Amino acid sequence: MNVMDFRMNFNQSVKVKLTDFGEQILRNRHEEWNLHYLERGGKDNGPYVSKADSEGYTSFQIWELIQKFGRICRLLNLNHLREK
What we know:
single chain, alpha+beta, 33% helix, 12% strand, elongated
């Protein structure tokens, strides 16, 4: 039996290309949190701004990517990430 020793650090950064759907998820999340803060007397965080670099990649720590997109990730249904 082959056993593979695999270790992963969820604080490590990954770069992904988001589709318009993926960007919309982040935009909606930003707007929801902004409304949450405003309703409680907090300061307006302004409009959503994409954090994609000049090549279209957005960086996340692995745990953050899972937190933001995990609930919609399914095998063969990754329509929020672009294929290379």
